[in-house]
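dumping the sequnces here before i forget
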Amino acid sequence: GEDVEQSLFLSVREGDSSVINCTYTDSSSTYLYWYKQEPGAGLQLLTYIFSNMDMKQDQRLTVLLNKKDKHLSLRIADTQTGDSAIYFCAESGQAGTALIFGKGTTLSVSS
Amino acid sequence: KAGVTQTPRYLIKTRGQQVTLSCSPISGHRSVSWYQQTPGQGLQFLFEYFSETQRNKGNFPGRFSGRQFSNSRSEMNVSTLELGDSALYLCASSPSGSLYEQYFGPGTRLTVT
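..and the predicted 3d for all of it:
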């Protein structure tokens, strides 16, 4: 079935790069997504990547996609304390009609 | 443009009761999706409405239902509440249902006692 796996926690120091990893099972997903959730808030779409791309860069964010291994990563350059949040990886699944989320990675940034 | 709004933001109900949550999408968006977020199960898709019709449905019991009005506002209803229904319920809207154009609201935190 469709499944998305992420590590649960990541701790970094301010100014370092953060890399959050994700694996997914459905190779037919057209898009893959990264969302951010801050305490008490809904989900904010950070970026997404089309499945025929290997990389997408958007300011401090870099998404890498390895379709062969079904591995997706999100790199945050120059991580700031304001980046502390839960980051969710999601795929669109075979039908492409609903998001299938991982359990989320809690990023903790210390100064 | 105003974002997706959800009311109420917090709700406490008792087991066996029913509850109705409301979602107002971004102006011009015709698709509204609902998700349930719990610590154990994570984020799970409930259903999607487009132009007043349920277009997609997740794997939830029939106690969970929804509807959409002609102005695209949507409500979801949970009947015969169980303790396990305690969750953050998130609504998302998009112009036509495209997932990469989907914007989420802040959610309604439902606590069932």
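The mean pLDDT of chain B is 95.
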